[in-house]
Batch of 3 targets.
Target 1
Amino acid sequence: MGGWTIGVLGGSGLYAIDALDGAEWITVDSPWGAPSDQLLTGTIGAVRFVFLPRHGRGHVIPPTALNFRANIDVLKRAGCTDLLALSAVGSLREHLAPGGFVVVDQFIDRTVARPNSFFGTGMVAHVSMADPVCPRLSVLAAEAGRRAGATVYEGGTYVAIEGPQFSTSAESHLYRQWNCDVIGMTAMPEARLAREAELPYALVGMLTDYDCWREGDAHVDVPSVLKVMHANADKARGLIVALAGLLPAERTASPIDTVLDTALITAPDRRDPALLARLDAVAGRVLNR
Ligand SMILES: CSC[C@H]1O[C@H](OP(=O)(O)O)[C@H](O)[C@@H]1O
Ligand SMILES: Nc1ncnc2[nH]cnc12
């Protein structure tokens, strides 16, 4: 038991949060390289927040070049207990109208060019991704979104594409046939790495457009995404403030806090010391005992 420290990954159009008491940008180094930016830390009530603009302030890093491992590693090092990801997403469903929020509960990963694990040769691990998000944080994020005035849809499958180009119409129709609900470029491998780092992860997709599947509609472009995001930025910030008020005073353990207990397979005497050193924050709990 203890308090909550919520790491917030801010996506397109959300590069800072202004409601933090004692707000301070801090630098956290990572053995995985440079994260997207400094971390903005501060508190709202009893809850500590650590905010990272996923693409860096000024949106300088494209999805493929994001150092997802460093981003998750620095959030872990900064003491985060849980992660809330906020992302602009395209809608693949008529009823998921731009302006609404979708609390995602599944993923299909179509990314092809991103390191997607902290583990590797010399320290092999396999975590379950069957239930890729934290149900506890997802429920609270949904309620926080409603309190912030958003229309919130609970549950939905996010297809992660490599980008940076938006999809072809054929792909957009295919993803609809696969029962995907929303589309974006950043939740993978972010959600995988959060799980490996034993950080419960919830994702609120902020619907900005109908991608390019809808007959007679203009296809998605950057101005249309940013227009909706700017109109919704207050609701996103309101969600964070409302979440602080909804979290119980004490954080009880989550099963996700200990997923590495059953994930490591490499024999202790065959482990690579250099890789173990890089895993100090992510897996120190199980490697140092
Ligand atoms: C600006 S449109 C495409 C861009 O927006 C989304 O970013 P994020 O998930 O960080 O909000 C999408 O994944 C693309 O990176
Ligand atoms: N249609 C779309 N495709 C991929 N990423 C997005 N982010 C926001 N809208 C998107």
Note: The chain has a mean pLDDT of 97.
Target 2
Amino acid sequence: MGKTMSEKILSAKSGLDLKAGDIAWVSVDKAMLDDILGPRVQIAEHLPKLSTGIKNVDNVVVISDHYTPPATVKQAEIVKFTRDWSKEYGIQNYYEFKGPCHQVMAEEGHVVPGTVVLGTDSHTCMGGALGAFASGVGSTEMLGIISQGKTWLKVPETILVEWAGSLPQYVMAKDMVLHTIKHIGHAGATYKAIEFIGDAIDALSVDQRMAITNMAVEMGAKVGLMRVDEKVEMYLQDKGIFSYEAFYSDPDATYCQVLRFDASSLSPQVACPHEVDNVHDVRAIKDKAIDQFYLGSCTGGRYSDLEIAANIVKGKKIAKGVRFLVSPASQSIWEKASQSGVLGTLAKSGATILAPTCGVCVGLHSGLLAAKERCLSTSNRNFIGRMGSTEAEIYLASPATVAASALKGIIADPCDIKE
Ligand SMILES: CC(C)[C@H](C(=O)O)[C@@H](O)C(=O)O
Ligand code: SF4
């Protein structure tokens, strides 16, 4: 009987012939610790008690991203602690102020097809766009991983999601994943793998594919996987990565569920307060007044996100009285968007450009919402209190929808744009 990508990757990393449901010790190729759930939580305290220390520091990546730039002394202390801990243990792969960890992991070449990448952040699953078994784990589990170089995992069953057809103009990958979440639900894929295939997936850039795998966890999924194709190969070559073993699901692999969608008939989607699966067509919600628009995060702050937003606002001004915050998902995206003029176009429209950070997305600093305010955001979570006041409302949408809406100060359908 054929195997899925998950079964093949975990079989290779365990040395066993595994199938969905099996539990096995699996070697971990890259362990990512972020500043919020990394060293400062149990790990620094208990690691010295383990005779092993860190099994292989080359496999450990530490990224300060939630508290950078620090907005309080406490946050600065956490970043300093994370930095000092990494230095004490000789960890070369330490990054700070570079942007959200998942974007940094991909950009710095730490996510490789056919490998197991585990991180102390739930959106680690974004790495599945590069054909890696990438997933979030807790701090205690991470302590075991860095000291043993392995962990035990149950091989997940796989839900196959096929997106056929081709996206209409201004309909994006974010709309595809919001529509998928609407059908599967915020817990419908608990401990499953979701494999995304189809012409509309293949047509996406790697940047855009990452918006989809990033939100696999918003359906409860362990991993979100996509095939390694020539676009992924080019992305990796650009990072100097040429040798790896990519795995592909067999034609006769077994799936626990198969969902098929048509991208050609998809319209812009929006997740309404206060659940990520409270998804509706924008045209059913539009005209709702919005106070703050946010273009950023590891879900919607990549270059192609900024570029489509800049193309929409070019030569225009955002609505009076609203805020349009833009935070590139990494330092290198910031540089590229600065050099290309994309950031300048956004700024000229009235956007406020912020440093690459998690802060706005997770309500730790920058862009906090006051009571009764509404935010339309390209990020991935909209639960109560996520971005500031518990009396604020957060709507999740694509970069095109956020940009088109910022021009009007209300939720607007980008497909209504007159060229
Ligand atoms: C690390 C943690 C605070 C959280 C996560 O694990 O995803 C955060 O990054 C988020 O997006 O909610
Ligand atoms: S940008 Fe948001 S979703 Fe991504 S890692 Fe940071 S806090 Fe989490």
Note: The mean pLDDT is 97.
Target 3
Amino acid sequence: MHYVSTRGTAPHLTFEEAMLTGLARDGGLYLPSEVPTLTPATIKAMAGKSYEEIAYTVMRPYIGETFTDAQFMDLITAAYAGFGHDARAPLVQMAPNHFLLELFHGPTLAFKDFAMQLIGQMFQASLSRSGERVTIVGATSGDTGSAAIEAFRGLDAVDVFILYPHGRVSEVQRRQMTTPTESNVHAIAVDGDFDTCQAAVKDMFNDFEFRDAVKLAGVNSINWGRVLAQVVYYFSSAVSLGAPDRPVSFTVPTGNFGDIFAGFIAKKMGLPIEKLVVATNQNDILHRALETGGYVTQGVQPSISPSMDIQVSSNFERALYFAYDCDGAAVAQQMEQLKSEGGFKISQGALEGLRAVYASGRVSEAQTSAMISRAFGEMGELLCPHSAIGVEVAQDHLGTTPMITLATAHPAKFPDAVTAASGEHPPLPARMDDLFDRDERVTRVANDLAAIQKIIKDGISA
Ligand SMILES: Cc1ncc(COP(=O)(O)O)c(C=O)c1O
Ligand SMILES: N[C@@H](CCOP(=O)(O)O)C(=O)O
């Protein structure tokens, strides 16, 4: 297996190269040249296995020669050892046919830990073998940044710079990024929104002189390794509800489309998924695109679910690649139009392909708060605002097929919104008790690419 760009013209890479590369040199995102399938018997045999064993079965076909079987299993074991729940991703029943997949038991309390902890292990193993150093630059609306800083802090071969929108992440998220003391991790507050930060990261990848000079790597979901690790919990949860004999559906709070795209890969691998439901907040470009066929940016509106305050949704490009039958030129043309005109029209054929897989819904701020309140009042389940959006949208798609809604973050990451809606203050785990007492270290910068690049060049360890 090799890895190809969604825009069709970048060099083909191995898994290790794709993992360390981030964005393809033609501006596209890497994908495996083919998606391996697992037989129903292999999927059935996952029942009763540990999360780590399922992770190995799901991901091994993608890794190639990068790690031996034993090395890869060791990396997986180390990645999930620090999770606060034996099941790693436990399922909680909310209603007869509706389940919540709790993805917030990792070290930074969001689903990002599932991939980032493993990527941290894989980067470390790969770089210590080659003796190389890389500079990771990431954009975050709050959770990717804290997960990346946690996974890479203190590692010798990596410097990490995380761009976040100043004033637009929760205080817990900000402190998770600004309080680690290790000198190889750096939080940068940019005057702008998440799209501004993500565009700056992509511009840095497309500036080949800078990219090669700093040995740029990415750990946003542009990195295939991120998506791959997220495929695992679709399998673990579906199997625990009877897959492959019983199909399931998923509702996924969505922003950059990485998490739900991992569900699409699980489906392509043979997991019987009936529907993948995209749940958005008021930044609803994905819902509008699926409803109308027009993918049109409108500017980011701040919300009480700040991690999903995204308009230019990176991984939608990967979904389009499959919807256009792996035609990189067609994807490149649409992405060019997005850049020059702020939007594009999805062809009728591609739109029908997307609608066969994905449904969608949008949730207002008032509905989000009401769902937090209702879930707490009726079920005793304290939801973060992102998870509440998932649960709200899922209500419109419940039927005879079991629905699994992804709970993507712990409510304690968003205490203001959760307390205002439910009257209940969600406490942080004891290990984070002193988060609000620690000193913060952050560099504030204008939305100016050259200024950001200078901060990065000056901050790289000697
Ligand atoms: C808590 C939370 N929920 C949902 C999302 C959306 O996930 P994705 O960007 O993979 O669509 C994010 C950020 O990405 C998040 O941090
Ligand atoms: N919501 C994310 C945004 C970045 O998404 P990614 O999955 O591409 O890293 C965040 O919390 O940072």
Note: The chain has 19 helices and 15 strands.
